[in-house]
Amino acid sequence: MTDFIGIIGGSGLYDIGLEKRREVEVDTPFGAPSDKIILGELSGINFAFLPRHGKGHRIMPSEINYRANIYALKKLGVKRVISVSAVGSMREKLAPGYLILPDQFIDFTKKRESTFFGSGLVGHVSMAEPTCKSLRELIFDIAKELGYQIKHGGTYLCIEGPQFSSKAESFLWRSFNVDIIGMTNMPEAKLAKEAELCYVTLALSTDYDCWHEVEEAVSVDAIIKTLLGNVEKAKNILRNLPSKLGEIKSCNCQDALKYAIITDKSVIPDDTKNRLKEIMGRYLE
User: Fold this and answer.
1) Do residues 33 and 59 lie in contact, with contact meaning Cβ atoms separated by under 8 Å?
2) The pTM of the whole model exceeds 0.90
3) Given 207, 221, 264, 271, which residue is catalytic?
């Protein structure tokens, strides 16, 4: 299987200029992913792009089939995933237009399937380091070379949505000492870890949520206006990625399940083994 770099595109990021572009449908045991996956090349490097909300932005954050999305990318041969996401800023200095590469998450979602485990198989994956340090550092270096304002590290708080925060909630989130807030990167990051993928969030600050005393409360119009400029920055970073891949350092993301599975192999149901073959087959044989 050819190795791909996976791009999960948030709002507005549907075309990154791939060459030899083609669309594929990928079947998974967890249902259909958000949309067809676009395969192509940038400077000779294979990319697989998945529109997180579907083309035309028709899927709400709570409706995204996160398990199918991650499973489909893994099945195609993706080793590294860059998740490009619009977020709200919880810090004055992270003004709209700023880029952030969070290294921590707080999960306040309520409705979402957040693991591949279950159905006779128990495992506990460490989420102490939810994103890939090596890939994160590479993207940071690219962004700095391009002259973009970008923060390396930080905490992303993920809420259920689709509503934005109330002022009381926004001030509560601020008291948690988080940097950004969004609705889409959990359980995406958890599932990527279970699938042993190198995962990084490239977050695009679009607004100040509603905590800011000077700026107006968040509105869709304001978000879209800032988002369009941020999307161009994200595209430029991705276009510069192929020439820098040789500089990436080794990591341990591909061994995230090494000590995670608790269940005795002899009692794991065959249908569970078959369903998870693409994700963790080497541990279940």
Assistant:
1) no
2) yes
3) 207
